[in-house]
Amino acid sequence: MANHSRHVLHQLRELINRDPDRFSANIYTRMFAIDPDLRELFPAVMSGQRDAFFRVIDHVLDVIPQADGHPELVEFLAQLGRDHRKFGVRPEHYGVIYRALIAEFASLLGDYWDDETAQTVTQAMMLTTGVMRGAAETAPFPALWSAEVVEKFRITRDLAVVRLLSKAPLRFAPGQYLEVQIPQRPKAWRSLSPAIPPNPRGELEFHVRGVQGGTVSCAIVGETRVGDVWHFAQGHGTLHIEPDRPVVMVAGGSGLAPLRALLIEMSKRADTPPTHIFYGMRYPGELYDLVVLRRIAATNPWLRVTAVSEETTDPWWITAVATPEALGIEHHIGTLADVAAAAGPWDEHQVLIAGSAKMIEATRRRMLIAGARASLIQHDPVV
Length: 383
Hints:
It is a single chain. With 383 residues, the chain is an alpha/beta fold. The protein contains twelve helices and twelve strands. The chain has helices spanning 3-18, 20-34, 47-63, 71-83, 93-109, 115-138, 215-223, 256-266, 290-299, 324-327, 336-342, 357-369; strands at 145-156, 159-165, 177-181, 190-192, 203-209, 229-236, 247-252, 275-281, 303-309, 330-333, 350-354, 377-378. The strands form two sheets. The protein has a six-stranded antiparallel beta sheet, covered by helices on one side. A six-stranded parallel beta sheet has the order 10-9-8-7-11-12, sandwiched between helices. α4 crosses α6 (115-138) and α11 (336-342) packs parallel to α12 (357-369). The relative contact order is 0.09. The model has no long low-confidence stretch (mean pLDDT 91).
C-alpha cells in the first residue's frame, strides 16, 4: 500500500478515535436517513451497537495498511457478515452502510477529500461491506434456530439453570458460546455458553448469573418461564483440548459452563490427558456444580477437582447444596487466580480460563508469572 493511502487511513483512525460515539451515531443517522426502515432492525437503546460498530471500523482502518492480502481481516469481516443476518440485515443494506460510511469520512476529512483520498477510502470500505455481504449471501446455514425452555430453577437469588429442547440440529462445538435472544428482551442479543456438549436429542443447558445492570441476564434469572422460545445465532469461540498435553482449567462462577461441557465431552474419549480444574466463587455455598464435577471425577481418574472460595463461611441467604468437604473435594481459601497459580508449575500445561473479564485478566497474568506459556493459554474474548 502506498504511503499516501497509509497516511489517509491512519488520519481517519485518529479522527474517529477523538469521539467514537459521535462517529458511530453519525453513521447510523445517515443510514436511517437513507433507509428509514433500517431503524426497525435495531434495539431502542443503541449505545452497545454504536460501540461495537466503532470497534469494527477502527479495526479495519488499523489492519488494512499493515500488509497485503489481509486474510485474517477477511475472515473477521466474513464472520461479521454471517453474524449480522440475525438482525435481519439483507444484502441490499450493505449498499446503505457503504454510502453512510463514505459520506461521513468525506465530512471528517473536509478539504483533504480529493480524488486520491476518495479512492483509498472507497476501496477500504468496499472491501469491508463487500466481504460482509458476500459471506452473508453464501452462508451454508440459516441465520437462526430456536429451542423451547422445558425447565428452569434457581440455584441462588441471582443464578439460574435453564434447560431447553431444540428440534433443529445443534450447531456449536463443546466449549463454544452462542448468541442468544430471549422473548422478554427482543432485539437484544447476548452470548451464553452451553453447559453440556451438543447431542442428538437437541438438549441445551445454560447457567446464567444475573449481572447488576444486565438487562438480559437479569430477565433470564427473574422472568424466563417454561414454554419460552429462545432464538440462537452462530456459535463462537475456540476453547478446545489437545490430547497430547496435560490440562489445567480455571473456572470462575458461571464461567464453569463451557469448561463443564468440555469435561463431559472429554469423558467420552479414550485419549483424554490428565486434567486439573480449579472452580471458584466468593462463598463456598455458591459452588453449585461441585456435585456434577465430583460425579465426573468419580468415573474418570484423569480429572482432579479443586474448590476455591474467597470466604470460609456462607452468608445467611445461601444454602449450600453440598460442601466441598462433604464431597471429599480439596478446598482452598483465596482468590481463584492466586490458588490456581500457586499449584503450578504449569509450563507444560494447556491452560483454559473462563469467567468474568476481570477474573480472566487476573488469572492469565498470574498463570504467566507461574510459568504457563502464553501460546498455551486459551480464553474467550475479554469484553
